[in-house]
Amino acid sequence: MGGPGCEKSGGTGVVTLAAADIQKIAEDIWHAEQTGEWTEAPSNRFPGITVDDGYAIGTAVRDLKIAAGRSVKGHKIGLTSKAMRDMTGATEPDYGYIYDDWFVLEGEAIQRSRLNHPMIEVELAFVMKEELKGPSVNVADVIRVTDFVLPALEIVDSRYKDHGPNMLVDSIADTAWCGGVVLGGNPVRLNDVDIRRMGASLSVNGEIIETGAAVAVMSNPISAVAWLANTLHKFGTSMQPGDVILSGSFVRAVPFDANQSLVALFDGLGEVTLKVME
User: Fold this and answer.
1) Cα separations (Å) of 181 from 54, 67, 152?
2) Nearest-CA neighbor of 173 among 153, 154, 158?
3) How far apart are CA 9 and CA 79, in angstroms?
4) The domain 19-277: what is its CATH number?
5) Which residues, in sequence order, are bridge partners of residue 212?
């Protein structure tokens, strides 16, 4: 399944857009994030745009942000559930960068007015103690180099006015639609818990809206992190010590609005809270 123009997420290794077009889209996405003047989705501009074009745009956005003083603090993995991959026409997950200014401290309130079309997801965050570099990374490698895992909320958001016809490529270009990260404060070692069996619930203003289990994330969130390490290798990069890796959501992404309190409660890891103001 999937909308018009959707394609497999593996790509062909061929970038079809001109370098000037890639740079212009990247500049527009970066401008939109800074100003709230939302831009046009890439697949609305270029109907034949490819997955590899999307990753090239995302890399160009990264370079603009680094030049402006931002830094990469990790990565997020998206489309880890079959339902989301079916919706976008993908056959595997995608990924995006997490930047230093996207972390929201627990107890702080985020302003709804600075967001576009926000939703919230419940995830596990892996924190790296060593570099993790593909190719051929396996689950044992991930366990060996992970310092600890934390409970997390991901704010899902885009810098686009509306969705384009190719949601997969549009997501990849816009850092897999990450808009912020809230980390909990209860770290655990991977050898102290079977995270495949970990459950979590998401409440909005005290009402449980969604429940799920980590096994929904590619059958094992550790496998998702291994997939990411091998995919990053294809693009000439790797996970670094201290990087935060969001391994994918347990639950359906839930829209939220101002004057709401969002709480994820994890088995064995406690809770993570995000408050939203006007």
Assistant:
1) 22, 22, 7
2) 158
3) 10
4) 3.90.850.10
5) 200
The answer, as to whether pTM is greater than 0.85, is yes
Instruction: Specify whether the CB–CB gap between 23 and 60 falls below 8 A.
Output: yes
Average model confidence (pLDDT) across the chain: 92
Residue spans of the domains in the chain: they are 19-277
Q: Provide the pLDDT for residue 93.
A: 87
| pLDDT, tens digit (0-9, with 9 covering 90-100), for 40-59 | 999 999 999 999 999 999 99
Position 83 confidence tier, pLDDT thresholds 50, 70, 90: low
**Residue reference for tokens 């010590």:** 241
Of 197, 195, 173, 171, the closest CA to residue 253 belongs to 171
Pairing of strands 94-99, 178-183: unpaired
Task: State how far the Cα of 199 lies from the Cα of 213, in Å rounded to an integer.
Answer: 4
Note the maximum CA span of the chain.
50
